[in-house]
Amino acid sequence: MNRLTSRLPDWTLLLVVVLTVAYFLLTHEGLYALDDYFYARYAHQLLTGTFRVEPDPLGLLHDPLKERPLIFGPVALCYALFGLNIISTTLWPLLATLGCAVLVWRLYRRREPLVAAAAMLLLGLHYFTLNLTNYLYPDNILMFWCLAGAGVLLRGQEPGRMAGWWGAGFALLSFAALLSKETIVYYLPFYLGMLGRDAWQRRHGQFWGAALATGTGLLAAYLGFYQYYTHDALYRIHLIEHTNQFLQEGNYLAGNRAALLSRVTWQPLAFFVAAGMGLMLVLAVVAGSHPKVPLADAATESARPPAEAPDRRFWLLLALSTLLLYWVGSTSLSQYNPISLLPRMTTPLLPPLALAAGFGVRTIVQRAGWWAGATGLVLLLAAAWLRNAAALLYALPGFYLLLLGLGASRPWWPARLRAGTAGLSALTVLVLAGALAIRPLYFMQKPSVSAHFAQDRLIRQHLQAPTQGVVFVDDYLIGNYDFYYGFRPPTGLQYRRYWARDSVQLAPGQHAWLLLNRATLSNDELTRKLIRYSPDSVLSWYPGRRLVAEDGPVALFEVSGF
Length: 562
Description:
Elements: H1 3-26, H2 34-48, H3 69-82, H4 86-108, H5 113-124, H6 127-131, H7 139-156, H8 163-178, H9 188-201, H10 205-230, H11 235-246, H12 260-263, H13 267-274, H14 278-288, H15 308-328, H16 350-367, H17 369-386, H18 392-407, H19 422-444, H20 452-462, E1 469-473, E2 493-497, E3 511-517, H21 518-521, H22 524-527, H23 535-541, E4 545-551, E5 554-559
Helix pairs in contact: 1-4, 1-5, 1-19, 2-3, 3-4, 4-5, 4-7, 5-16, 5-19, 7-8, 8-10, 14-16, 14-17, 15-16, 16-17, 17-18, 18-19
């Protein structure tokens, strides 16, 4: 194997790790939704021993997030080790994201170095993979368990393995995914298909025997746990159905029937392209075409290893079955409710799709010619259809592959960049890295839209015990201000909304403050739904104010006469 090719996965892993950590630190926006706030609060309750396993006795607080202990459980450990802050809160999603890159590297670093490098880039530098590193959402954590479980299934059935241990590990990883998010069920048809095939062919009995025994024991304990605490072994399923019933106005057979046809036909494809997944889809189609790849001479690294075809089929079939369920599946057993077309909902699909696409990159590098040209043309068509900044993701590799297809067989084409050479492998990886890094790098240099860290500094410096009084804040901060105090705000401080000023009366010795976060009040996502006032209008409500401190777009005023 060429030395340049053998080192591609190592350098690619380093690049992915550096960019992921840089993105995590430079784009962090603090708590950004109810989900991460609830997970953080449950982690704190777990750490302090106040977490309640059983549901609310009044039946009012049916929160599905509470049933995902492998989301907030590791966060509680991070709090114990590093204290309660926004970095320790989101360290677990970051580690899970980095863990996915390491798993791909470990799976194919020696077997298929080009596949490893391409898949790490396509998965690790996918914008929404990076975007989910700094929010306490379950999606990247689930992605880690999905990839780990599928990798154990693939490798655990190879000759010479301790199949029983690998089977038990497969069951444990699948159960860990279940304790993170329910959409691991999207892998179930593929797993059942593998089990049925092996049972028919009477293969891998030790692996599946250990997997089924371990899985049955874990599932029995899980259902028994719910039966003991909730008197309903299927409590989690019923909770999901209750949530779907609550949201039935958007159901595609009830309140949203007119949109059903588009949702199960063209909308998912348009969504995938707009979200940047079209590059992986096109490359996966190339891998699925299974062309007859000629063996290169001994001077190149392109000779196909024996495991290439089974691995390629494995990831292609897993990606296809998951894609079909995402496209037409339902989140409910009692009504047809397809999963939301949101980027963060696609994380179970990303690992097998990225690995299948990695094999597609390998095919293109080996063949070049019209395979590369046709792929490049499709990517350019996607870029032309988008006609926005995201089109660069398709345009750059599209032009490169079109040029490769037209020129690779010409006499003037450099010999070191011929089909199947180490030079062409390295250049292709470099082009992919450049195209995928554009959007993350752009957002890394943009100003914050929440100014979380500036707000946190002002609260820590000026709004701590023994200070007493009232702090007027926006409608977003009012829902999570206790996070800034480790969920234990000072008893002498009350937080109230801006518009509650007329109902507040200060006791002797108390003061009132106005905390104005201009970044929050100009955030498009919040002003469209939650906040209906501007910084200037807020200031006009408090004419008697004195500036106490200012940190970037965040200002703290002492107010009177409101």
